[in-house]
Amino acid sequence: MNIKYLLLPALVATCCSCASLLNKRQKNVTIYTTAPTRIIHENDTLYTRHNKATLRVRRAKTALQIRLKNDSLQQTIHIPPKNSFAWYANFCNYGLGMLFDKNKAKRYTYPGSIYFFPELPKRPYYTYPALHQRGEMQLHFGLPHVNFFSLVPQQEARQSNGGFWGLALGMDYYHSPTRFVSLKAGAASDFFIPFPAAVDLIGTHEFMYSYSLSVSDNYHWRKFSLGYGLSFTRNTWEVRYYDRFDPPPPTREPVSKTHIACGLIFPFYYHAGKKFHLGLNYRPTFYRPNLPDKFEYEHLLSLELAWRIPVWRS
Fold first, then answer.
1. What is the pTM of this model?
2. Looking at the DSSP assignment, which residues form a beta bridge with residue 174?
3. 197 vs 141: CA distance, rounded Å
4. Residues 261/235, Cβ–Cβ less than 8 Å
5. Are 146 and 164 in contact (CB under 8 A)?
6. How would you write the pLDDT of the chain (314 residues) with one tens digit per residue?
7. Domains of the chain
8. Closest by CA position to 70, among listed 49, 92, 47
9. Cβ count near 24 (within 10 Å)
10. C-alpha torsion sign, points 257, 260, 261, 265
11. Own/partner long-range contacts of 243-251 (Cβ < 8 Å, ≥24 apart)
12. Could you tell me where the beta strands, DSSP code E, fall in the chain?
């Protein structure tokens, strides 16, 4: 057999072993703490600045050992390695690069960020920014941009519609590193255009919009938060007639009906970034004190773009 056929696979694996080509021997790891801390790794000693410090560590198959010390703390944490993205990228060369990278240190990686919480003895560190300081407050600014209504106005059949635009403003208070109370006021509408534009309405049109005040207790897990709470709302359903540009006759008389309702709220958010979140809010209501038919199920389901901005830390 021609030797070139034996060398070809080895040459392909060598040239296409992604971890060996793309990964450096060392990696930066940033440690975040809740208090000024001295961080020791092998022969390196760093002091946190603004409660964070960055270590340059060697890739290895073994766990990364870091010692943390301050006036009230002396603790060692072990961070297990994991396969790097570059090693999995060897699937692009049919896995041949995996064989070449199998026993190499460059195959492995460590989390780029480590969040250390000594007040949680069962698990003192996390590899994602899912925990916050107790007493921290965040300003919540949201755009509930896509909204789905289901309302029952007085002496009317159930009215359901979807549309765009809304605004939410609130405050989140962390009473533990993983739980926070949220107080939020918001408004939502079913306007039929998802972007700002001048429109000319002709004939009969229905509109729904809602104002709300809610309070919820929320649990923060990794990059997600899920909560439950109470809501107080003011819902409006309107029929309007626009007689410009020779419209068709109205299908019914213009009317506006408003009622208040009490119920629950279930907020769910994916923390896509440090401040930017994607949310889904389900707000069912059951009790309407100012209407004869007081008990009626209604709901608003909103897809929200949200930003949480820290404003206070104890």
1. 0.68
2. 180
3. 23
4. yes
5. yes
6. 455 444 445 444 445 567 777 778 888 988 888 788 888 888 888 888 888 889 898 988 888 898 888 888 788 888 898 888 877 777 776 667 777 777 788 888 888 888 887 766 677 787 776 567 788 899 999 999 999 999 999 999 999 999 999 999 999 999 987 899 999 999 999 998 888 777 778 878 899 999 999 999 999 887 899 999 999 999 999 998 888 777 778 878 889 999 999 999 999 999 887 789 999 999 999 999 999 999 999 999 999 999 999 898 66
7. 3-126 (no CATH), 137-312 (2.40.160.20)
8. 47
9. 10
10. positive
11. 244/200, 244/202, 245/200, 245/202, 247/202, 247/203, 248/203, 250/203, 250/204, 251/204
12. 26-32, 38-41, 44-47, 52-58, 64-70, 73-79, 82-83, 108-109, 113-116, 125-126, 137-151, 159-176, 179-191, 203-221, 224-242, 255-270, 276-287, 295-312
Judging by beta carbons within 10 Å of its beta carbon (0-12, 13-18, 19+), is residue 259 exposed, middle or buried?
buried
Contacts of 10 (CB under 8 A, 6+ apart): none
Q: How far apart are CA 35 and CA 56, in angstroms?
A: 21
Distances in whole angstroms, Cα of residue 54 to Cα of each of 30, 248, 290, 302, 313 = 4, 69, 59, 40, 23
Record the tokens describing residue 72, joined without a space. 């009230």
197, two tokens: 């534009």
pLDDT the model gives residue 94 = 62
Alpha carbons 308 and 269: distance in angstroms, whole number: 11
For residue 141, give both structure tokens.
């600014």
The neighbour count for residue 172, using CB atoms within 10 Å, is: 23
pLDDT score of 135: 86
| CA distance linking residue 109 with residue 86, whole number of Å | 10
> Which of 122, 147, 118 lies closest to 133, judged by CA?
118
Strand ranges of the sheet holding 38-41, from the earlier edge strand across to the other edge = 44-47, 38-41, 64-70, 73-79
